[in-house]
Amino acid sequence: MQPLVRLADIERSYPLAGSKVWVLRHVNLEIGAGEFVSVMGPSGAGKSSLLNVLGLMDNEWRGHYELDGVAVEKLDAKHRQALQRDKIAFIFQHYHLIDDLKVWENLDLPLQYRNVNAKERQAQVGDLLDRFSIVGKKDLYPSQLSGGQQQLVAVARAVITRPKLLLADEPTGALHSSQARMIMDLLHELNRDGMTIVQVTHNEDFAREAQRLVRLADGWLEKPAAPSSQIESG
Amino acid sequence: MILDTLRHDLRFALRSLAGRPGYTLVVVLTLALGIGANTAIFSVVKTVLLDALPFHEPNRLVAIAQRNSEADGNPISVGYPTLLDWQQSVPSFESVAASADWQPNLATDSGAELLRGQSVTRDFFKVLGVTPALGRAFSADEDQPNRNDVAMISHALWQRRFNADPGIIGRRAQFGVRSYTIVGVLPADFAPLLPAMRNGAPDVWRPLGYAAPDAPACRSCLHLQAIARLSPGATLASARAELDRLAPALIHAHADDYPAAMRFELNPLRDALVGTADRSLWLVFAGVAIVLLIASVDIAGLTSLRAATRRHELSVRAALGAGRGQLARLMFAESLVLGIAGGATGIALAFALTKLIARRGPSSIARLADVHVDGGVLAFASLLTLTVTFVAGAWPAWRSSRPELADALHVAARASAGPSAARLQSALVVVQIALASALTLGAILMARSFERLLAVEPGFAADGVTTIDLAIAGPAYVDAKKTAAFLAELETRVRALPGVVHAGAVTPLPLSSGWDTAGFHVKDKPELGVEAPEFDRVYTTPDYFATLGIPLRAGRLIAASDRADQPLVALVNETAAQREWAGESPIGKQIQLGDRDEKASWITIVGVVGDVRAHALDLAPVPQVYLAHAQSADPPSFVTLAVQSTLAPALLDDEVRRAAASIDRSVPVYGTTTMSARVADSLARRRFLLQLFGLFAGTALLLAALGVHGTIAHTVRRRTREFGLRRVVGASNAALLAIASARTARCFAAGLAIGLPLAFAWGTAMSAELYGIGPYDAISVALVVLALAAVVVLSTLAPLRRALAVDPAIALRNE
Ligand SMILES: Nc1ncnc2c1ncn2[C@@H]1O[C@H](COP(=O)(O)OP(=O)(O)OP(=O)(O)O)[C@@H](O)[C@H]1O
Ligand SMILES: [Mg+2]
Asked: Average per-residue pLDDT in chain B?
């Protein structure tokens, strides 16, 4: 089966006082379509940096990155952005909803950026509000919601474009345990519906709920990069 | 689709601006001030300084005058034969014309009206390029002695006094002593504001009717104001060169009539017209430029800070799929909303302020009444400030790369600008403080000059004095005795009014125009050098000195007994006494004024009176000679009656009118005002400048305050968490204040370090407008530092209070 993501020998460094500081070293990783992968590692290990590369938010890496059959390193900035729009969505520890937009407008925003027409947008936003059971909250501003509700909206906003790859950077990091549980359940549900998910987490239990766990330390990937047997069996 | 998103962006911009009313108000106000105040002041400067004169091909119009010596301040006149020589011998002139003041009475049923008029040479209207609205201009034939009983009238006079009668041409009207046939009516928009005509447009013209060479048409009779139209292709330089060749030839041919150093001076008519207003208006212009700069800097600072604080939001949007263009459009939308609000407010302000300046400005600045909001100027100021708004607002969105944006997403949401935005903001605040300190010093210096001027001892007491102008002219007053008799009778009747203490007449009144100097000759004193000293010649009636409280220093005053048939007497002021007889008493000395003539009678000095600042409060007293009006063979017809009384000016005006009419109803009484008002009027130009510069300084300080406030408020917001942490570990209020205000304090110090030298330069540039004070005045500098310190402290109070109030628990909970 063709993997959705194939990273080969990815390297990323930042210039530091005349030399370089390496944040990703010879990273090789394949992620199959429909997989749910957890990334763990100490602070500063390079987890967020890895998500930036995967999410096409970062263009300054070296190596080979194939996303859904497309060699990313061969694309210019414009096509990379188009690819990102098509395939990728993010959720973050700090939700990052836009304060001055109501709940439904936050959901509407990604569709606007994809030039979906107004009628179609309205329908999709309505569906999603329904599916996430937040219809009653649609005219509230983010500041009027609890942390868990905000993250719920953030997840809804991420998936409204039906991305192939959902990247979650510590999605439960700022939540109380009950709300964290709800978000994890939601991620599982999305994964069951076929979405590929890569989550960064510091929570061992949540990490183990994924099909596969990879660990980063000082920019090095610890486990062998081949898909584990769990995939064949799960 | 683009429109759709633009609509979204605009709606979002409106909403997020409504959620930040402080920021929005500050930017809109800054834009409005930047556009409005500057457009108004710039419009004034442009109309007065830069706009063309309202004549045909105005760039070909020049003013020419005869300069007798380098000491001649600002020569404006010429004699008639010289004018004819220019006409003949200067090919660069297409046509030359001259005018002299003429103030005829127009007798009517309701009393006499004094008209402003001009006697003009035949080509006057041709030079200006004006065609009459009705009838015709003067013919060459009519510009001859005894043939010049024709007149042209203004459109306004035609409507006011002749009911706009279309059959007016050919009718006769009595102007002053003679009757004239009206041959033309000028167009409504004709306003020949020649140098002598600053205070209003004339209403009536007649041909000059001179024949050289007899007086007044003699070469040394310098009383005509000349203008010329340059020939096509001629330049100022070619005309000047021709005049420079002509002058020595004329001196050679008429050695008696011209001093050896005589030369001709030629200037564009506009320069001659705008005259001294020029320099101060350029200062105003510079002030506008500085305020505009401060406003732009302010807007750049505010919008770029705001853009920086939106970095996080931009990052989120980028992660949701927004492209660089879409992000820039978002920022653009906010700038657009701000720009429209600020621009509209600014335009409204521009119109309001322009109207105010045109109405409140002093009449001594020519053409101020013509001022209107200039479209080009408005466009310039708007374009500049709006461009700054757009560029500073949208530039960060363009500039930020995606990795930078990505970084912002993996840390806690924070409303922070990076260190580079903070540095830029600091630099902008330094610039604002520096520029504001220059404008503030300018305003303070002007205020202190004004204060000193108000404290100047004018040499007369204005309190309780009402002044009334009279024109005692006409066929009945050809005999000087009649004039004296009229005046004596009027004074007697006015003095008899209850409440009147003193009444005396003078020509000219202190602080008025119309000064006349005459060569001062002393009997039995050998004259040194070629030219006699020139002293002011003043005519008075006896009670004038008591009326204005001018003290007698030695001898006696002019008395009622100094009649025409008595020996001629004169008074001198202290400056004249000191100048001519230092250490010696002038009493009993004999003098002549004008031409020395050993055979003619001499005037005896009978007294010395105190000095009066007669020309302006800021000019030191000049030597003056007072003559008895009653003894003059050719007394001035225009006299001012000064009355010391307890009566209201309006009431006194009524009474004097009645008294004058009961003696002779053909004598016009006009221009009633108080001496205090005349003093205030004489300061009007300075007061106006002071107000303008006060406006500049106020605007600059306000803008600086907004800038400082923005910076420190931002610092406090950005470092809320840090302050909370410091609180947790036990920082005192003083320690927190020191941290929160450190950057502002540094900006303040740097701003002053740059600003004070700038302020001194600015003060030096405006030194001509200062009185009794220079730019390095210690107190003024201290006031500037104080004013700026106050502005900085006041604008930091609220943010600093917020810094102290940071609750550690709340600040830390965010993380
Ligand atoms: N813009 C940057 N410039 C320089 N170094 C950077 C930059 N961004 C990240 N780094 C460095 O890269 C390394 C990896 O950072 P990254 O954010 O990927 O860590 P992380 O594993 O996500 O840590 P955490 O668990 O704290 O989020 C760190 O040492 C960090 O200091
Ligand atoms: Mg991280």
From this structure: 84
Cα–Cα distance, B183 to B171 (Å, whole number): 8
* Domain containing residue A149: CATH number: 3.40.50.300
Q: Whose CA is nearest to atom 19 of ligand 1?
A: A44
What's the B407 CA to ligand 2 centre distance in angstroms?
10
Judge whether A232 lies within some domain: no
Question: What are the residue boundaries of the structural domains of chain B, listed by start?
Answer: 1-54+291-413, 69-261, 415-456+682-815, 475-665
> Within a domain: residue A152?
yes
The tokens for B422 are 């903070």
Rounded Cα distance, B361 and B371, in Å: 11
Give the number of C-alpha atoms closer than 13 A to the C-alpha of residue B747, restricted to the C-beta side.
30
Distances (CA, A) of A140 to A145, B312, B586: 8, 21, 97
Which tokens belong to B583?
């250490």
CB contact under 8 A, A96 and B413: yes
Does some domain include residue A227? no
Residue A148 lies inside a defined structural domain of this protein? yes
Q: Is the CB of A218 under 6 A from ligand 1?
A: no
Q: Which atom of ligand 1 is nearest to the CA of A51?
A: 18
Model confidence pTM above 0.90: no
Q: Which residues of chain B neighbour A93 with C-beta distances below 8 Å?
A: 410
Tens of pLDDT, residue by residue over A81-131, are 889 889 999 888 888 888 888 999 999 988 988 888 889 999 999 999 998
Range of the domain at A210: 3-221
B312 to A96: CB separation less than 8 angstroms, yes or no? yes
Overall domain count for chain A: 1
Planar angle of CA B293, B297, B303, nearest 5 degrees:
145
Confidence tier at B407 by pLDDT (50, 70, 90): low
Q: Which residue of A has its CA nearest to B411?
A: A94
Query: pLDDT tens digits for B419-444?
Result: 666 777 788 889 999 999 999 999 99
Q: Which range scores top for mean pLDDT: B251-260, B274-283, B547-556?
A: B547-556
CB B667 within 8 A of CB B472: yes
Q: Whose CA is nearest to atom 26 of ligand 1?
A: A43
| Sign of CA pseudo-dihedral B227, B229, B234, B235 | positive
* More reliable by pLDDT, B447 or B220: B447
Higher pLDDT, B47 or B154: B154
Q: Which residue of A has its CA nearest to B319?
A: A90
Question: Would you say the CB of residue B412 lies under 6 angstroms from ligand 1?
Answer: no
ipTM: 0.79
